[in-house]
Amino acid sequence: MSLKRVAYLCICLLLLASCSVTKFVPENEYLLNDVNIISNTNPEMAKKAHSYVRQQPNAKWFSLVKLPLYTYSLSGKDSTVWVNRFLQKIGEPPVIYSPKLAEQTRANIEQMLRNEGYLHATVDLEREYGKKHRLNAIYYLHERERYTISSFALETQDSALAKVLAEEADASLLRPGMPFSVDKLEAERKRITTMLKDRGYYRFQKDYITFVADTAQHSTKVNVKMYIALFRQGANKTPVNHKIYKFNNISFVSDAGLRLSDNALTSCDSLNYSGYNILYNNKMFLRPKKMVNNTFIEPGGVYSQSKVDRTYNSFAQLSALRYTTLRMVEHPDTSLLDCYIMFERSKRRSVSFDLEGTNTAGDFGVASSVTFSDKNLFKGSELLSLRVFGAYEAISGLSGYSGDRYFEYGAELSLRLFGGLFSDLTPINRNLLTSSTLFSIKYNSQERPEFERRLLSGAWSYIWSKSPQSMSKVDLLDVNYIYVPWISETFKKEYLDNISSRNSILKYNYENLLITKLGYSYSYSSANIRDRKQKPVIFSVRTNVESSGNILRVANALFGGHTNADGQYKFLDIAYAQYVKGDFDFTTYMNFDERNSLVFHIGLGVAYPYGNSRILPFEKRYFSGGANSMRGWSVRGLGPGRYRSSDSNINFINQSGDIKFDCNLEFRSHLFWKLHSALFVDAGNIWTLREYKEQPGGQFDIKSFHKEIAFSYGLGLRFELDLFVFRLDGAMKAVNPAFSGKEKYPLIAPDFGRDFTLHFAIGYPF
């Protein structure tokens, strides 16, 4: 069946379904077709009111087509037929308009407006009836005048509490002259409750705080009074002042078999370490010092909710633990607390895998990796990880070589120590939420018909975070040794030794090289990107700066050193690279509803070789194309600039650069079940900072680079499981800067065999 016939059939099915969506709507009832909220004076309030709608219409695919409803409508009413059951399972039944829910929505929006200070606001509901049992619900907002706070006062019989609040008066969220808002009153309750809990008021709850708002006749001013009640143990007890609590004993319960019973522990072994009690059965699986270092509360200290939360978060970072619970037990008739920090170990060892595939113009490629992890190597939650990886790619168009395959394989061993710079050997920084030290060793081997290349690297990094959303990393030492043991005679003769075709980029990257890197990276995410019920707009940022060779260059300047034939200084008789590199990556997620979201991503990178290097090392150069970049091109298949590949034997070297720009826009939509889809547009390219004769048209020019930005578009499918996201993206080139004239714009006259690329991968591209 031709592609046109398939498209025609799909259109017919959608039209048929759209005509029959109301066949499941009962008589005298209506399909909720749309919900609109209109405000002629305050569009922001209308936008906010959408979150108060109690009944939403059927979901739209890409916010355009109600595909789940149409899928459901293709089924028949006979549920004994498996096809009908299947279509109804993957589809969505019609949403029947509910007058009760509509009235609740109207009342909720009206109350929301009054909570925002529009005390005389009203909301009207209008029902717009359409053809074939369809109905639109329209809510009209009438805000009227907004009230403001005229004065704010506090009243309480607890003098000690009043003194504390007076000290924190400048931090109050309520000010005379500001718009009256119930949300602001609630935020002030939470602020005061949090502040008092951090000052030892363990039993204080926000319910002790109440507000009275008094409005004057013929005025839009509100006088606000805040009342804080005394503590009451029970309904028949006499109210008393709130107490400040202190910790008495703090105990670690390090075995899942131990449980609190009647506020006491069952019989077990015990150990006292630095004033903390450690309770366990038989033997401990965590070292005592590791437990104490991750605890921010101490015996004799004043209760603090923020320190309790930090203790929770600190233990949650330890890979050896499955979960952690802090239980407080009060001493009767005192202000003393016993705290039991109870945790259970996680599964110590695990195995995971990753897979990626691509098929471009008949050339098939696949990459895979297997990772083994040990989460508690030395009983200090040390994370040992061993990753073994391999890749295969068919290479077409090679002539004069003995093979037509590309193989890559290797292994990476890493050890992550949670705590100070050397884990327990150095003091932990109590101002940090978490910190760890990472050591790693990596070996990589590349075997092509033209050459064999080896990479051996070792790194020492320090990682820390000040909040759950951010993370920083310093590469204190990162050494990479590149070794080229074999080069094909054909390759040497045609590209390296032949004076007429000698390629300086090739020659530099087929010599032994030492890279000594220092770097810093930072990442921040405003929320959990996978949770669509979070904020409607969230974002993430990643930055990285690194340099190489400067320390060795200073050593050469001070103590002298030998140079090779190309004038490069050497260390241990190996030339070393010298460069500086910076990367910036930004992604924002705009969630329209639980099914549809828009994702925008931009990535920038610049690397500058200098001093001992005229050319950037191959491992540090930028490439474009592939499943996570410009999806209209194969991996390393685009650029630099308007450079057009003329020799497939060395494309993997020549199609690289010093500057990278990626810009992606992706509309993601949930289809049904675990199947999701995406419409995307990609734009970007790479460039070189210097002009190389081997890459004509590849140099970056501020005046003309915009003419060399490539574009592609496509459709993707994602199969979301609990642990993996399997992704299939099909993309077409739209603008190809490597060509001129009509060929530059495949969007107008696409060639499927030349311009289409299919990518298979695990995980989202960004």
Describe this structure in words.
- The chain is an alpha+beta fold and 766 residues long.
- Among the domains are: 3-142, Ubiquitin-like (UB roll) (Roll), CATH 3.10.20.310; 148-228, membrane protein fhac (Ubiquitin-like (UB roll), Roll); 246-345, Roll (Ubiquitin-like (UB roll)).
- Helix content is 17%, strand content 39%.
- It contains 14 helices and 31 strands.
- It has a 16-stranded antiparallel beta barrel. A 5-stranded mixed beta sheet has the order 10-11-7-13-12. A 3-stranded mixed beta sheet has the order 1-3-2.
- The radius of gyration is 33 Å and the shape is globular.
- Residues 1-9 have low confidence and may be disordered.
DSSP strand (E) fraction? 35-45%
The N- to C-terminal Cα distance equals 35 Å
CATH class of the domain at 3-142: Alpha Beta
Largest sheet: 16 strands, antiparallel, barrel
CATH superfamily of the domain at 3-142: membrane protein fhac
Q: Looking at CATH, which topology of the domain at 3-142 would you report?
A: Ubiquitin-like (UB roll)
| Count of extended strands | 31
Using the CA coordinates, give the radius of gyration: 33 Å
The largest sheet has its strands arranged as: 14-15-16-17-18-19-20-21-22-25-26-27-28-29-30-31
The gross shape turns out to be: globular
What fraction, in percent, of the residue positions are helical? 10-25%
The pLDDT mean sits at 86
Low-confidence stretches: 1-9
Q: Helical element count?
A: 14
Would you tell me the structural class of the helices and strands? alpha+beta
Shape-level CATH architecture of the domain at 3-142: Roll
